[in-house]
Amino acid sequence: MAKLFKWLTMAVLATMLTACGYNDFQAKDEATKAAWSEVVNQYQRRADLIPNLVNTVKGYASHERETLESVTKARAAATSFQVTPEVLNDPQAFARFQQVQGELSSALSRLMAISENYPQLKADTSFRDLQSQLEGTENRITVARQRYIVAVQEYNVLARSFPTNLTAKVFGYAVKPSFTVENEKAISAPPAVNFDK
């Protein structure tokens, strides 16, 4: 009888452990880390393209010094940001990461706008190749971010659902921040269209 009780107790404990979601947290946490690594990888790829792009533009538009410097500064800020796994669990650090990458995107947009003023630059093969690589990288960033958003969503649903939310509290699995749009209020407003101009 004691052996039967012991086996029943072990079976109940095993069932409780499988229902608590601990292993699911391990899997989802690793999935978010892997997705995050891909996001960082694509941002690094973009940062690696920038020096060549700046040097190519510099050859044609050297008097656009302010824009070239802003791109260089934004790249320096983006690459100096320490990206650690802890960033995933710290909403302030995550927001800072997004801000730094947003500033780099903005500076790159200004640089690309300048190229419109220089037909010889737009015709340069190196510039076109770099521009194409940059566009491809921006697309990869978008895909990587989307995958990360999905991984975080799955993790956060697990962390907030009953009974796995109890496991999350016991083992310290907090809800993870996800990517957001910087100007969310501005883009939610309908665009103003004026045909009088």
From TrEMBL:
The keyword NADP does not apply. This is LemA family protein. It is a single-pass membrane protein. Coiled coil: none annotated. Transmembrane segments: none annotated. The keyword rRNA-binding does not apply. Belongs to the LemA family. It is found in: Membrane. GO terms for cellular component: membrane. SUPFAM superfamilies: LemA-like (SSF140478). It comes from Oxalicibacterium solurbis. Residues 1-21 form the signal peptide. Keywords: Membrane, Signal, Transmembrane, Transmembrane helix. It comes from the Bacteria. PANTHER family: MEMBRANE PROTEIN, PROTEIN LEMA.
